[in-house]
Amino acid sequence: MSKNVVDMDERRSVEQEWRRYTKIGIMFIGLIILLFLLFSSVFIVREGEYKVIRQFQEVVRVETEPGLAFKIPFLQTVSTLPKYQMTYDVSQAEINTKDKKRIIIDNYAVWKIDEPRKMISNARTVENAESRMEEFIYSVVRTELGQLNYDEIINDEKSSRGSLNDRVTERVNELLSRDEYGITVVDVRTKRTDLPEENENSVYTRMVSERESTAQEYLSKGDAQKNETMAETDRKVREMLSKAESEAEVIRAEGEGEAAKIYNKSFSKDPEFYNLYRTLESYKKTIGEDTVIILPSDSPYARLLMGYTE
Questions:
Q1: Shortest CA distance to 187 belongs to which of 163, 220, 221?
Q2: Residue among 39, 153, 67, 168 nearest 102 (CA)
Q3: The CATH number, out of the four listed (2.60.120.680, 3.40.710.10, 3.30.479.30, 3.40.50.11540), of the domain defined by the range 86-195
Q4: What are 45-71's pLDDT values in tens digits?
Q5: Which residues cross the membrane (predicted)?
Q6: Rounded-to-integer distance, Cα 87 and Cα 280, Å
Q7: How far is Cα 201 from Cα 297, in angstroms, rounded to an integer?
Q8: Burial of 146 (0-12, 13-18, 19+ CB in 10 A)
């Protein structure tokens, strides 16, 4: 009898232990489920990103501020969209300018998502948004360049219509806003503007010809200016020489007149000396190296030539 009582007590003790362990196990499993549900409902919104919460593929809300946020586990899903500015490399395109030149233009765009709901509703994905943005950029660039000459495109300062990049950016944003894509283009820039390969040689040849023509024009202007300067200088030199010669003639005439006065005054004091001087002067003009004079030996002229002065 006592043995049966002991067996019953042991059985109750074992059952109580199993119940206690079962309860602990259930609590542990419940805790794990609770933690799983908790972690499944919590997500982190980081700086520079949007968190889009969907329920049955429909957007129910968008978290924009950094920090912790919650969702309904299993019913709601979370996806991420970039909040920061992104760069998109636009495909190269061939454009015709106003002066009928074909050019290849290569652009890039800096853009960002402003309204995630509209972007998801109308573009669905970032790739689709970039595709639509590229289409608008190509359309606007083609229209704008079609109104400009080639030299205005390669040198935007010559354009009377302002900055090409600013105009393209403004017009693309107008189109994106019209169709409510929820994105904004911050800037559109031209990386490179090239001519098609088949046109490069002819354009380079024409450019060389234009430069040679310009150089020749500069040379012609320089020669004309040189000739004008030389003519003006020659004229001034002739005027200066003429004036100097005129002044020299006046001075020479005054000197000769003064010399004649001095000669007359001197010769009047000794008429015989004057006659001798005049005779000697006549010898200088009449007698040269090959002159032959035949005179009587007793003539005064001969005597003077032979050195007789008495």
A1: 163
A2: 153
A3: 3.30.479.30
A4: 888 899 999 888 888 888 888 888 888
A5: 21-45
A6: 113
A7: 103
A8: exposed
Contact present, 172 and 142 (Cβ < 8 Å): no
Q: Read off φ and ψ for residue 126, nearest 5 degrees.
A: -60, -40
Cα–Cα distances (Å) from 73 to 38, 78, 111, 200, 299, in that order, read: 8, 10, 33, 63, 161
Closest CA to 72 of 41, 101, 51, 49: 41
d(CA 272, CA 101): 105
pLDDT at 148 (0 to 100): 80
CB 50 within 8 Å of CB 64? yes
Cα angle 212-218-220, degrees, rounded to a multiple of 5: 100
Q: Which two tokens stand for residue 133?
A: 């943005």
Q: Kindly report, as residue ranges, where domains of CATH 3.30.479.30 are found in the chain.
A: 86-195
List 52's β-bridge partners, or say none: 62, 79
- Cβ(137)–Cβ(168) below 8 Å: yes
Give the tens place of pLDDT for each residue, 130-184. 999 999 999 999 888 888 877 777 665 444 445 778 888 999 999 999 999 999 9
